[in-house]
Amino acid sequence: MSNPVAAAPEPLVRACDLCKTFGAQRALDQVSLDIYPGEGVALLGASGAGKSTLVKILGGSLAPDTGELWVDGTRQRFVSPLSARRVGIVAVHQRPDDGIAPGLSVAENLLLDELCQPDADFLLNRKNLLQRAQTIADGLGLDLPLQHPVERLGQADRQLLVLARAFALQPKLLVLDEPTAALSETDAERLLGLIDSQRSKGVAILYISERMSDLQRVTNRAIVLQEGRLTRDLNMRHLPTVAYTLFGDTSQTPLLVADKALPVPFLERFTRAGFIRNRAEGRAVRERVAGLQVDGGESGVKRKAGTDPDT
Question: Does ATP-binding show up as a keyword for this record (predicted)?
């Protein structure tokens, strides 16, 4: 008697023929892909390839013009990031300040998704709020000043805060856009360890980065977008060749990329303490100061409505 053939695993997320246009430009052109539980998928593509558009559709920030999106075998029509989070898709975009609510404490920002629920108790006992926030931070191994105003956090700590809030939502698919770009070696390694633990629990990761070490650590396959079309779905052993074709030599990519739009108060957490605690922080300060001395270019220019977010 022959052995029964094992059934193929069902995808966690299935995108079918997604299309999106901005004016005369087609940002996505019939993109179809499957993402399975527990796998890490690298999303690669040059600037303007459609990566941000795809991420925003998956995260509920943007609706496709045509095409279908399925999660756990059920067709979905997201109308907001909240509707995507309700079925387990959480997207963390590259700019952490987009996910920060100024005027609130670090603890309140960590519990922001809970506080924004329609039945949230806005008169929540402060002690209970701090205890719940501390439980989340401790569970992720993060040391955050929960009672401080969120504005006092440096850029790296803001990134960790936004990521901690995403992990706390217990997502099924976590979309991460350059999450280690503003982190020191220590914080980046801590984040990658958290991602490893999430994958071991069955969480799928869609990861955008030009940093080869991150991609090789986090992902097991890669999909490539070019001019809005998905052109390759490949094994990670081919990644170095494809990455070189798209980005050039990535072997010398610095751990910390200067953010020219970053305000000076990033340095507050160093100057307030009165000293730089290790070499990684010293490099961080040098990178930030160098970035602040360079013209910000288009980083502070507001995008006109109806234009492609990938350009």
Answer: yes
- Structure confidence at residue 212 (pLDDT): 83
Q: How far apart are CA 33 and CA 14, in angstroms?
A: 6
- Write out pLDDT tens, residues 198-217: 898 899 999 998 888 888 88
Residue scoring higher pLDDT (210 or 2):
210
Domain that holds residue 273: 258-300
pLDDT digits (tens, 9 = 90+) for 63-120: 999 999 999 999 999 998 889 999 999 998 777 777 788 888 898 888 887 777 666 6
245 and 284 together in one domain: no
Q: Which amino acid, one-letter code, is at 157?
A: D
Helix runs in 155-311, H state only: 155-168, 185-200, 212-218, 239-247, 268-273, 279-292
Which one of 223, 249, 275 terminates a domain?
249
Sheet (strand 74-76) strand order = 25-35, 13-22, 66-71, 74-76
Chain centroid, CA 164 distance in Å: 11
Joined together, the tokens standing for residue 225 give 């977008």
Question: What φ, ψ does residue 288 adopt, rounded to 5°?
Answer: -70, -45
Nearest to 231 by CA among 96, 49, 1, 10: 49
- Asked if residues 219 and 205 have their Cβ atoms less than 8 Å apart, the reply is yes
Please check whether residues 167 and 184 belong to one and the same domain.
yes
Give, in order, the Cα–Cα distances in Å from 232 to each of 27, 124, 242: 17, 49, 10
From the list 135, 207, 195, 129, the residue with the least C-alpha distance to 160 is: 195
Q: Lowest mean pLDDT of 30-34, 171-175, 199-203, name the range.
A: 199-203
Among 201, 206, 203, 166, CA closest to 33: 206
296 and 226 in one domain? no
- Cβ 161 vs Cβ 110: under 8 Å: yes
